Amino acid sequence: MPKRDNSEYKITDPADMIVDKEPPIEKHPGEFIRDVILPEYGLNVAKTARLLGIDRAGLHGVLTGRYAVSRELAYKFGALLRDDLADFLIAYQHAYDLFQEQDLRESFKDKIERLAAPEGPS
Question: Origin, by domain of life (predicted)?
Answer without folding.
Answer: Bacteria
